[in-house]
Design goal:
Low-confidence stretches: none
CATH superfamily: NAD(P)-binding Rossmann-like Domain
CATH topology: Rossmann fold
Helix content: 40-55%
Number of helices: 8
Structural class: alpha/beta
CATH architecture: 3-Layer(aba) Sandwich
Number of strands: 7
CATH class: Alpha Beta
Number of domains: 1
């Protein structure tokens, strides 16, 4: 269907070197988009696969711990590609500790990357689109903990709950400007971040028992949602969150 074709589009994806970010970048590339991969380490494997798909791929080196650099990220992407059309706020981090012992450093580190930098990167992209009188798509990567409390991840839960709220706020403010802001909420995926959970027989089985699909998600499972929300097919979708969770939230 032509409405899902991303030919001629440029997608800026943070945290695209591994896991879900890599899978999203490759799905967008296979749909026709060029990829600006943002992060502190070179996403060599991702960019090689993007180029194998026949699309341009460039690394924009950036430290998302510091939101002051987000305007430079947008400027660099525009300089390399001539424009940006899609922003995927995927980069994230988490710190674990009991709430009684949680430190301000662990709070600030997670909120800074997961929420503050995501908001200000969206703002920088939207400012460019408004100045150029262009439309654009923003996809924030939320979490099951945008809906649930979790344990021992206070700042992560706060950041992902906040990111969902910010998604809705930005949709309210920017929809009339032709800027779509939506979110994807991944469930339990087989990535490096969940290796310890999958290696624990009791935790692994407890998680599988809760998932109606009866399996961990493969990173490739998230690509279709990202392509949809990036495409013309989602032009009238604003402020939505699309769970990609094997049915976890429906349980």
């Amino acid at each position: 269907m032509t409405t899902f074709n991303l030919d001629g589009k440029v997608a800026l994806v943070t945290g695209a070197n591994t896991g879900l970010g890599q899978a999203i970048a490759l799905a967008l590339a296979h749909a026709g988009a060029d990829i600006a991969a943002v992060g502190r380490s070179a996403p060599d494997e991702t960019l090689a696969d993007v180029r194998k798909a026949g699309r341009r791929g460039e690394w924009i080196e950036a430290n998302l711990d510091d939101s002051n650099g987000v305007t430079a990220i947008v400027d660099a992407a525009v300089a390399k590609f001539g424009a940006i059309d899609i922003v995927v706020n995927n980069a994230g981090t988490r710190r674990r500790n009991d709430a009684l012992d949680f430190t301000q450093d662990d709070w600030d580190a997670v909120i800074g990357v997961n929420l503050k930098s995501a908001f200000f990167l969206a703002q920088a992209a939207a400012r460019w689109w408004v100045a150029q009188q262009r439309s654009g798509k923003i996809i924030n990567i939320a979490s099951m903990l945008s809906f649930q409390g979790g344990i021992r991840v206070a700042s992560y839960t706060a950041s992902k709950s906040g990111l969902l709220g910010i998604t809705r706020l930005l949709a309210n403010e920017w929809a009339a400007r032709g800027i779509n802001v939506n979110a994807i909420a991944p469930g339990y995926f087989a990535t490096n971040n969940t290796q310890a959970l999958r290696a624990d027989p009791k935790r692994n089985q407890a998680i599988l028992d809760r998932i109606p699909a009866a399996r961990w998600g493969d990173p490739s499972d998230i690509g279709g949602a990202a392509v949809f929300l990036s495409s013309r097919a989602a032009d009238y979708v604003h402020g939505a969150v699309l769970p990609v969770d094997g049915g976890w939230l429906a349980r």
